[in-house]
Design a protein that fits this description.
2 copies of one chain form a homodimer. Chain A contains 8 helices and 10 strands. By secondary structure, the first copy, chain A, is α/β, with parallel strands linked by helices. Chain A has 2 domains: about 70 residues, Winged helix-like DNA-binding domain superfamily/Winged helix DNA-binding domain (Arc Repressor Mutant, subunit A, Orthogonal Bundle); about 110 residues, NAD(P)-binding Rossmann-like Domain (Rossmann fold, 3-Layer(aba) Sandwich), CATH 3.40.50. The first copy, chain A, has a 7-stranded mixed β-sheet. In chain A, strands 1-3-2 form a 3-stranded antiparallel β-sheet. In chain A, helix 1 crosses helix 4 and helix 2 packs across helix 3. The termini of chain A are far apart. The interface between A and B is large, with 56 and 56 residues.
Chain lengths: ~210, ~210
């Protein structure tokens, strides 16, 4: 149970905590001190204690954190047990890479359908997920209210497709198009994936090392 | 010119500044105040001023920042003009999505080759980039010293391929495999792309909105 409201900075770090705790759990670790957890994550013990202070009941002086309990608590806060559904818009290379290789269910999402305009792929089933024609999106969303849309369409189609998702009632968009979507005021949340930001950080680190 | 060493937290934000300044530059904006830049980035004017204090000569009381100059300075610091070269390891869906759709050159990287084991693709040229057999990686790196490897191989091949890149002299690895690579002590920097972290943040935001 939460003791206090979790700050947004902590929220952005929670997925990393979840990932590290899952690795520890898989490795059979039952409990871990804040300093050991910090070391494995490149953080100080005091940063860890501060971040996780809202989960105080799982961290005790001289005991540390119960790995499985803390992982479960973080999972609850992240909404991983809410039964979110998701569809993919655009089954090109990136859409298919996600569809075939990314484990949506491990993040609590059930992937129910994909949409594309390519007749070579529409009507097929990829990794158990049916691919429908993009023109049938509205009809699908009426029949199957959906929590989240993965936007992997070409840039030129990004804003129009996002608008259709918003009107179709999705709650969130996972945006891979590198376009700033115009969904302000709709209440729909957008999580942008910017590959270039990540590559530029790497460019900096490589350049510093030269 | 830099006035002082740039902190690592600022470095992680520099790509976002670069992206926003590029958008402003494309839109024809010549100068911008710290409060306007902050507003477009969801930061306060004082955070902006603090972050960019090491670029003081471009920010002046009553003038703001010269968009193009600040963008150029950030580009230099990020190492975008160093002529980095890159190769892609694994030309499956994700590798091909990057190869065909991602503009490496806009981040200062020249993509020179891709490697795979699939005979259906080895020997072809995709978006101007030759695809070689993975067994020829060492020979290629000897003849063409390369700055960075994009790791999009299957998980089972991740660590072995990373080791070959390290021994082949790359300076950095852009890691899409979701494996924590064992390159400690090699001096090679690794930038991990964790799709699940991004999705879990979205899951949190969707769940809070419900």
């Amino acid at each position: 149970m939460r003791k206090e409201k979790v700050s947004s900075a902590v929220i952005r770090r929670l997925p990393r905590y979840y990932r590290h705790l899952s690795d520890l759990h898989l490795a059979g670790t039952e409990r871990i001190s804040s300093s050991a957890l910090g070391k494995s994550m490149g953080l100080t013990a005091s940063q860890i204690r501060q971040d996780l202070s809202c989960f105080g009941e799982f961290g005790q002086q001289g005991y540390g954190y119960n790995v499985d309990k803390l992982r479960g608590e973080i999972s609850d806060i992240l909404g991983m047990n809410r039964g979110h559904t998701a569809i993919i818009l655009g089954a090109g290379n990136l859409g298919r890479a996600l569809l075939e290789n990314f484990h949506f269910e491990r993040s609590g999402f059930q992937l129910t359908a994909a949409f594309d305009v390519d007749s070579a792929i529409v009507g097929r089933t990829l990794s158990g997920v049916p691919v429908y024609h993009a023109r049938d999106l509205e009809e699908y969303l009426r029949a199957h209210p959906t929590g989240m849309g993965v936007l992997t369409v070409p840039r030129a189609a990004a804003d129009a497709t996002a608008g259709r998702l918003v009107r179709g009632g999705v709650k969130g968009i996972w945006n891979f198009t590198n376009i700033e979507l115009s969904v302000a005021g709709s209440g729909v949340v957008v999580e942008d994936v910017h590959f270039a930001d990540s590559l530029l950080s790497l460019s900096y680190m490589i350049s510093e090392a030269l």
